[in-house]
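Structure first, sequence second, as always.
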């Protein structure tokens, strides 16, 4: 866990994931198309079938324009100026499949690309780009029954305010009388409660799994995971007590009182990505009477010794990308299985500390919950 805090929690999905391999890249295929996350009628940014991204920025009086795709960008993609005052450039290599944050640096200032939609990450609204994935069908918008994502404001006496959460209810919830299990799903550092539904497409993943008959429906709740603001690199100063109170003593009772939930630990799960995994691990070990299903997505691991004098949960899910530290996930899963725990370890091939890893992780984890 210490190594994880030193490395993985330095950044969440802002990690760029551009594959700047030293080997010579193949010739770029000129089949670029606008990213699916572009603003209406905006032609750029574009992506091609190989995973390259191409950017075009209008800045006629600028002296320098770069596109920065996270910490892996080696200074970013430098754009070249054309006679019409526009700047254009293509990434040095293909990017990992899935969603990526980015921003534009013009003469040293940081801005968002007006051509694309914005997503909250790295403690600010960032531009977003989607590199089409071979397995993107599982989170695609399809002609299937859809659940509802609604914003709620719940009272939080401990923080002397009302706090926000987003609640996914499955298709048919509004017209039915059934009660449902609940997954409390946490974002990473620098993100907020919008991340899982926007960047992660958790609602579409759930809709498609339910339509395919692969899971029994359940509710998902996402809330902001910070009660004391911590800057990047300062996670050692994060204290769980405040957020644990918000989640366990304020949000969960509110959800149980206002939604048709099965208010038992056997029907309640907690999972999170990156920093949200750290929160999940700490809270589930502190409050084993509240949750019975645990998920750490690029968020560290459990060991059997963590459960000394504590009840075993019904299920543990551990995951990360193959470009992270997959051996740690494999070893932890093996150790827990040897100690008699019901656990799965999952590795997302070809991805790093990014949302494609976590989309795939939710796909793998959801069918195992509440069985």
């Amino acid at each position: 866990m210490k190594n994880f805090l030193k490395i993985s929690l330095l950044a969440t999905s802002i990690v760029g994931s551009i594959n700047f391999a030293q080997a010579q890249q193949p010739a770029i295929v000129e089949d670029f198309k606008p990213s699916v996350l572009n603003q209406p009628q905006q032609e750029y940014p574009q992506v091609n079938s190989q995973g390259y991204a191409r950017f075009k920025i209008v800045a006629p009086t600028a002296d320098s324009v770069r596109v920065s795709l996270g910490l892996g960008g080696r200074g970013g993609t430098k754009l070249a100026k054309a006679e019409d005052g526009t700047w254009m450039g293509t990434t040095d290599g293909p990017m990992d499949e899935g969603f990526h944050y980015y921003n534009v640096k013009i003469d040293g200032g940081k801005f968002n690309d007006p051509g694309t939609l914005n997503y909250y990450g790295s403690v600010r609204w960032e531009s977003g780009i989607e590199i089409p994935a071979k397995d993107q069908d599982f989170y695609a918008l399809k002609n299937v029954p859809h659940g509802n994502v609604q914003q709620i404001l719940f009272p939080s006496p401990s923080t002397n305010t009302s706090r926000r959460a987003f609640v996914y209810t499955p298709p048919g919830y509004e017209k039915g009388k059934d009660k449902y299990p609940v997954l409390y799903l946490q974002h990473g550092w620098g993100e907020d409660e919008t991340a899982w539904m926007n960047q992660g497409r958790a609602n579409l993943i759930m809709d498609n799994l339910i339509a395919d008959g692969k899971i029994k429906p359940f509710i998902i709740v996402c809330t902001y995971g910070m009660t004391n603001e911590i800057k990047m690199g300062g996670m050692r100063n994060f204290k769980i007590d405040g957020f644990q109170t918000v989640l366990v003593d304020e949000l969960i009772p509110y959800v149980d009182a206002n939604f048709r939930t099965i208010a038992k630990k056997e029907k309640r799960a907690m999972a999170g990505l990156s920093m949200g995994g750290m929160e999940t691990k700490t809270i589930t070990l502190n409050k084993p009477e509240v949750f019975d299903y645990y998920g750490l997505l690029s968020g560290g691991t459990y060991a059997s010794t963590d459960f000394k004098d504590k009840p075993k949960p019904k299920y543990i899910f551990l995951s990360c990308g193959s470009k992270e530290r997959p051996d740690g996930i494999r070893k932890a899963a093996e150790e827990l299985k040897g100690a008699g725990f019901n656990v799965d370890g999952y590795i997302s091939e070809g991805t790093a500390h990014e949302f494609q890893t976590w989309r795939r992780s939710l796909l793998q984890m959801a069918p195992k919950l509440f069985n």
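Margin note: Residues 1-23 have pLDDT under 50 and may be disordered.
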